UniProtKB/TrEMBL annotation:
Residues 217-312 form the PH domain. Residues 357-492 form a coiled coil. This is PH domain-containing protein. Keywords: Coiled coil. Pfam families: EF-hand_SWAP70_N (PF25530), PH (PF00169). Gene3D superfamilies: Pleckstrin-homology domain (PH domain)/Phosphotyrosine-binding domain (PTB). The keyword Coiled coil applies.
Length: 540
């Protein structure tokens, strides 16, 4: 039953979106949702396969939808009647609504009740599309096209007895673009249902009305007179027309069903001759013929048209509104394709017209250029004639100038020879000056060398002088020290007993060195010893 999964995918996505953190939902949460869906479909234990599905503990929506398709919905019979499919859709929608209602009911100023919001939610999921998010390419969102949202809003406005402004809705739809659930509900509440004069019961009835149209596929409902099968009398019933059946009740509360007439493509509707005030028509089915009546001709035409429409769309496994939506999408696609083709043709025509205008403009520009060139040629001819006259005069003047130039050239040649002679003389003088300058430079270099040598010699002499002065100073210091030592020795020798005699004193003093060399400053120890020996001999 891939069709059933396709029909409830938008509801399941909202439940999945309310459970997810990021882009993934934990398997434990998905097991609860899968178990509830399986219970509604009389399939038990389908959630157990999630433990072995994929190795990760979290799943994306694509993975969860793949699991539902192959493990849950594939277990249903391939052929299921439309009422059973609708019942499944309703139950699954209720389960998904129970999961996501807390997040979807959040708004600042609520107008609709929770039950009405749930019905609008089902209408939204019926008409919306599951697409990839433009901001996050790996994430899905459920959006409603502005045209589909306009159909719902228009039906709601008409049910409330208000005037519908199509231009205003087109401006609003173009500004918003694709409607998500929050934007869709906010627009319906804030723009069309915020009037304080509207009673809450009127809002509930309006939502119920569009719910019957879009979800229950009710084409038309109202009071009809029906001829009885046993008693041929016309009794009034509340009739509800759907693509597959015409159901009639005792009252508009639809609590007591009196009968149900199956409608298929083999049924037909024909007008019948009326008696009295009733406008009659017949519904012919393969089993029997039913006769109905209305109070006026207009109502009869509406019911006849609605019954024929129901018979025409009675076939197929999908509901009437789903097929109508698919038809609108196909028509929209065709209109869009035709619009693209029309725009392409218009663009081609515009390009062709622009090309023709450009070609005409080019031809006009070429004509202007030709005229301009002709005028330029005339001006050029007059200019050439004038130049020819000037050239003739110039030739005569040139001959005169040439004669003058020849004379001037001869004079110039003489001056040139004189200048060449002067130049040669100047070059010779320059060469002599260059040689003198070279000799002077050599002499100057030699002088500089001698000067540097003299400086070096002077520096050496100064260093030698400083060294000699130092030696002289040291020698003078040694001499003064030696003289001081000699005087001290002389005093000691003079005072010594052995030298009291003048002769010995003079002899001893003769041994005192008087030279200025450093080696003569010391006393000859042998001489002193010799004097001591002489002194001892005298004593003996």
């Amino acid at each position: 039953m891939s069709a059933l999964l396709k029909n409830v995918t938008n509801c399941i996505w909202h439940a999945f979106d309310s459970l997810q953190s990021g882009d993934l939902v934990h398997k434990s949460k998905l097991k609860v949702l899968t178990a509830n869906i399986g219970t509604l479909l009389d399939l038990y234990g389908v959630e157990k396969g999630l433990d072995h599905f994929r190795s990760s503990s979290e799943l994306t929506f694509d993975e969860f939808r793949h699991y539902l398709q192959h493990e849950v919905f594939s277990s249903l019979p391939k052929t299921v009647t439309l009422p059973v499919v609708r019942e499944y859709e309703k139950k699954i929608s209720e389960v998904c609504w129970f999961v996501c209602r807390k997040s979807l009911l959040k708004r600042d100023k609520p107008v609709f009740g929770d039950e009405s919001v749930f019905k609008l939610f089902r209408i939204f999921c019926l008409l919306a599309d599951l697409v990839l998010d433009a901001d996050e390419t790996d994430r899905y969102v459920v959006v409603l096209q502005p045209s589909e949202a306009g159909i719902v809003a228009e039906q709601l406005v008409h049910c409330l007895g208000l005037r519908w402004d199509a231009a205003d809705w087109e401006a609003l739809g173009s500004s918003i673009g694709h409607f998500r659930w929050a934007a869709f509900l906010a627009v319906l509440e804030a723009k069309y249902c915020c009037d304080q004069q509207l009673h809450s019961e009127a809002l509930v009835e309006a939502v119920d009305e569009i719910y019957d149209v879009f979800i229950e596929d009710i084409i038309k409902k109202g009071y009809l007179y029906k001829r009885g099968y046993l008693l041929p009398t016309m009794r009034e019933y509340w009739c509800v027309l759907q693509p597959c059946a015409l159901t009639y009740y005792k009252s508009s509360s639809q609590k007591e069903q009196c009968g149900r007439i199956a409608i298929d493509e083999y049924c037909s509707v024909e007008a019948a001759a009326g008696e009295g005030k009733l406008q009659r028509f017949q519904l012919i089915t393969p089993e029997r013929t039913f006769e109905f009546g209305t109070q006026d001709h207009k109502s009869r035409l509406q019911w006849v048209s609605a019954l024929r429409q129901a018979a025409a769309v009675s076939g197929g496994a999908e509901g009437y509104q789903r097929r109508a939506r698919a038809g609108r999408r196909g028509a929209g696609a065709r209109r869009e394709r035709e619009a693209r083709e029309t725009r392409a043709r218009l663009q081609h025509e515009v390009r062709a017209r622009l090309a023709a205008e450009a070609q005409a403009q080019e031809l006009a520009e070429l004509s202007q250029k030709d005229n301009k060139k002709l005028e330029e040629l005339k001006n050029a001819q007059a200019e050439l004639e004038r130049l020819l006259q000037e050239e003739t005069q110039a030739k005569r003047d040139e001959e005169i100038v040439r004669a003058l130039q020849a004379r001037v050239l001869a004079e110039e040649w003489e001056r040139r020879e004189e200048l060449e002679r002067l130049q040669e003389e100047q070059n010779r003088m320059l060469e002599e000056e260059r040689l003198k300058r070279k000799q002077f430079e050599l002499l100057q270099a030699e002088k500089e060398t001698q000067f540097r040598e003299a400086q070096r010699r002077l520096k050496e002499l100064e260093q030698e002088k400083q060294r000699l002065d130092a030696e002289l100073k040291a020698a003078q210091e040694k001499i003064s020290k030696t003289e001081h030592n000699a005087q001290a020795l002389h005093v000691q020798l003079r005072d010594h007993p052995i030298f009291r005699n003048g002769e010995r004193a003079r002899r001893a003093l003769s041994f005192v060195p008087t030279t200025k060399s450093s080696s003569d400053t010391l006393i000859d120890v042998k001489a002193v010893r010799h004097l001591k020996v002489l002194d001892d001999e005298e004593k003996l």
